[in-house]
Amino acid sequence: MSITASRRTTSVIAALAAVPLFVALAGCATAPSDAGSGGSEDETVKIGVVGKGDAQWAPFIEAAADEGITVELVDFGSYEQPNPALTEGEIDLNQFQHIVYLAEYNTASGSDLTPVGSTAIYPLGLYSQKYDDVDDIPEGETVAVPDDASNQARALLVLQSAGLIELKSGGTIFSDLSDIDTGKSKVEVTALEAALIPTSLPDVAAAIINNDFVEDAGLTFEDAIAQDDPEDPNALPYVNIFAARAEDADNETYLKLVEIFQTNEDVQAGLLESSGDTAVPLQTPVEDLVASLEKVQKDTEANK
Questions:
Q1: What tens digit of pLDDT does each residue of 166-193 get?
Q2: Distance (Å, rounded) from C-alpha 283 to C-alpha 267?
């Protein structure tokens, strides 16, 4: 996949801040006291991630060091951990989530975490150890999806697109298991913690597996028997981001790290490698990310 070609999707996706959202993922802070207004060289920045061994991080750390910035990665075992750690100041940034996930966290916790840069958008795949084609899955079989709200809604949209279920609402970023029209659906759906789905794959007909856990199931990204379209023009809420506390939104050091991630050739090559060439790298303007976050948070509040 060409990085240059991928970035051409940015202008399309970035235009969506106003469109209805239908689609379908440590220690003490060491930033200096002037972090909110600037920053300086020779800083240590702690970044929370899920998947410290991913191929993009080694060249990213090296490229940051060349700019006088020491990056310390803090690896978390589940998606529930990096945002509270950032809110509490245990880390300085995190990079593991899309806008929908961040909106749900902010709404539920009253936090004000904010995007400071985009990384990529990833297709979400359906995998099976029993069937090579969606059409081969028998009626009445069970399919697993993640139990966290944002990834569950997106997963259900993948299943609907694959013809396995039908959603009463037609599918939104708020769809959950109660939105499934069981009488019109081919399969039953069960929700499991995202990190546990790989080990549960033999027990179900198929499962939506988040990219971070695909290899844990002994699979490759090419093994997906269905997936969503990352270039869908309504995909902005599922763009993955660097997140910071609101007071650090203009921190020059953090913005420099985003620039390094987005433009360094070795980092971008590692990003594609770790995603099995499925990532679509993006340089979406921060103002569009923030506008999307604000809209999703408003919609989330209204949906309560």
A1: 999 998 888 999 999 999 999 999 999 9
A2: 14
Sign of the C-alpha dihedral, residues 79, 82, 87, 93?
negative
Confidence (pTM): 0.71
CA distance 206 to 232: 24
- Burial label for 290, CB within 10 Å (0-12, 13-18, 19+), is middle
What is the rounded CA–CA span in Å between residue 14 and residue 221? 26
Each as own residue / partner, the long-range contacts of residues 58-64 (CB below 8 Å, 24 or more positions apart, any chain) are 58/270, 59/264, 59/266, 59/267, 59/269, 59/270, 60/260, 60/261, 60/264, 60/267, 60/270, 62/266, 63/260, 63/264, 63/266, 63/267, 64/257, 64/260
- Consecutive H or E run containing 126: strand 125-127
Q: Looking at residue 59, what is its pLDDT? A: 98
Is there a contact between 56 and 271 (Cβ–Cβ < 8 Å)? yes
